[in-house]
Each structure stands twice: as structure tokens, then as C-alpha cells.
Design goal:
alpha/beta; 4-stranded parallel sheet; two-stranded antiparallel sheet; 10% strand; globular
């Protein structure tokens, strides 16, 4: 399905088309697009691509990275996996495979085919959380700097956008070296999310 042919689709029909997509048919574990969204989503988590464990489970962030991300956000699984609260739209919807230094980058065909169509159908987004350089480049473009600089200068795009380090345990060294992230930024993030979700649940 071309990007032009998605113009008349509602969000549910678009998500159905995405979940049956086989654009990247040569992937090592085969295509299995993973996405969470609803027309009323208020917060967007824009990550890289599912890992192999996510591919197996079919559930995004159902691992140690997800536990840390939810801790950073100050929410539990119920709020996190409620698409009326949270859209999870990675740069690539399928597991791309593994290279010499870890998982391969998201397949570029995915964002080109689907991303603008999905975001166009999320009119109520109040906050976008960006995880990873590919998502950072797509959402911020020329504003992108290296990760540490961008996270440190969080106020440049606040309160609409916040760039996060990856919550993977592999990032423990970065978190240890940059304690200001948890001490200064996370309380502000949690307050913002609590405010958004309190208005969502009162509707």
C-alpha cells in the first residue's frame, strides 16, 4: 500500500494495514510490525525498532528497558499499555536483525511508508519522548546534536518534546556518568506526564 493510498484511512484501518505489512519481507525473523496507538493518544514514545524479545512477545517494552522507562515516566503497565494514553511508534515496526555491534538500525522503508500517516492521525499528542539517534534525527532534524548535549539541553524543545537516553541496562554507564539526568530531568518529566494523564482520565 502506497503512502498516498493511506490518506482516507482512519487510525484503526491504518494500524490494521501496518500490522499486515510485509514491505521488509527479507528480515531474519520475518515481518511482524509492532505498534500501539489510538486517535486519542496523548503521549508518543518514538523509539528505534523492536528487539528480538519484543518480536517474540509481540509487546513493546515488555523487558528491563520497559521497566526502567516506566519508572522514568512514573507510570505503571496499565497506563503504559493503554493506547488512549500512550502511542508507541518506533522508527521501524519490525525487528531488523543483529549486526556486529548489536541490533541493526531500523529499516528506512518503514518510516518512509508509514510514519507521517500515523502521526497525522494522532492530533491530541501533548508530549513526544524520543529514544535513539534515528528517532532524534527524524523528529528534530537539523536541531540534532549528540545524545548527551541534546538531553542536557532538554528545555530547547520542552514541553512538547523530550529526548531520552535509551533505558536499556546497557546504558548504565551513561546514567552513572550523567546523574543530573535522573536528578534534574526525571522529576519534571513525571510531573508533566501526571498532569497529562490526569486530564485524560477526567474526560
Amino acid at each position: 500500500m502506497s503512502s498516498q493510498s493511506t490518506n482516507g484511512l482512519g487510525i484503526e484501518d491504518l494500524l490494521s494495514s501496518i500490522r499486515s505489512c510485509t514491505l521488509c519481507n527479507g528480515l531474519p525473523l520475518g515481518p511482524q510490525p509492532i505498534i500501539q496507538a489510538a486517535h486519542s493518544s496523548r503521549i508518543l514514545v518514538a523509539g528505534q525498532a523492536p528487539g528480538s524479545r519484543t518480536h517474540e512477545k509481540g509487546v513493546p517494552f515488555d523487558d528491563a528497558s520497559g521497566e526502567r522507562l516506566r519508572h522514568w515516566m512514573g507510570i505503571g503497565r496499565t497506563d503504559f499499555y493503554n493506547p488512549n494514553n500512550l502511542a508507541i511508534v518506533p522508527m521501524g515496526f519490525c525487528y531488523p536483525g543483529t549486526g556486529r555491534s548489536g541490533d541493526l538500525p531500523p529499516r528506512p522503508e518503514c518510516a518512509k511508508q508509514w510514519r507521517a500517516s500515523v502521526l497525522d492521525r494522532l492530533p491530541d499528542l501533548e508530549l513526544t519522548l524520543i529514544i535513539g539517534s534515528y528517532a532524534m534525527d527524524w523528529h528534530l532534524g537539523k536541531q540534532s546534536r549528540n545524545l548527551t548535549e541534546t538531553v542536557r539541553n532538554w528545555n530547547d524543545n520542552w514541553p512538547k518534546i523530550l529526548v531520552l537516553p535509551h533505558p536499556s541496562p546497557r546504558n548504565n554507564l551513561w546514567l552513572h556518568r550523567n546523574r543530573w539526568f535522573e536528578e534534574e530531568i526525571l522529576p519534571i518529566l513525571r510531573n508533566r506526564i501526571a498532569s497529562i494523564l490526569s486530564r485524560t482520565t477526567s474526560l
